[in-house]
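To whoever is on call:

I kicked off a structure prediction for a single chain this morning and the downstream step that reads the tokens threw a length-mismatch warning. I double-checked the sequence; it's 233 residues and nothing unusual in it as far as I can see. Pasting both halves so you can look.
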Amino acid sequence: MSMRPERLNATVAWLFMAGSACFVVGSVPAYLNAVGGWADGVTYVVGSVFFTSASYGQLVQAQSPATTAVDTVTQHQPAPVHLLGWAPHDRGWLAAAIQFPGTLFFNISTTAALAHNATAAESNRYVWRPDIYGSVLFLVSSAVAVLAVSHRFFSVQPKSFPWRIAWLNMAGSVLFMASAIASYLVPSTDALLSARLAVVGTLTGALCFLAGAALMLPAWRRSLAPAATTTPH
């Protein structure tokens, strides 16, 4: 199987942006009031599917060197892609491999959240737990990604697109984790631990992911090597 490297990167970026946008819209109270709880839940489900698709695309990209080692010409030429791979020594691949199952947990939690009349125990088991697991995996993936682009966790490289993307994703993961913790349903009151933090964490975290995904497009253009030229004899 082959694919144009530039198209693969753009597809991953736009899928991440679409997923992030769904989570942003879904967490806006005005949208919830306008469309109702079920439609709002469907928005999250759709967003999680976009996230999963983008994450798998990023994993394929990480395990297919021919799709990243390109120049301004070869980026438009089909390159072989590997749908399955194993490269734990590569931090970029490791970050993508950890992130992908995290998106699957979000698929589970957002789908389970559509169930009506669930008890607090059922909600915590089928919605909150997968959400927490997904958030933990996103957080670990983001930490590995930061190390992949900077080698030192607190290295500051504001002019580097990969560094900015990695730290935007880290911020998004921290905020998603805060939202997940705040979404715990207290059995004695059937109320969220902190409804405000749950909403704000999801909204701001999704905005961070959206910004990071948008930067993938200019980051790709900057990373391209000049096209190889042949010197005439």
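Update from on-call: the warning came from a stale cache, not from the record. Cleared it. Sanity check on the structure: The chain has eight helices and four strands.
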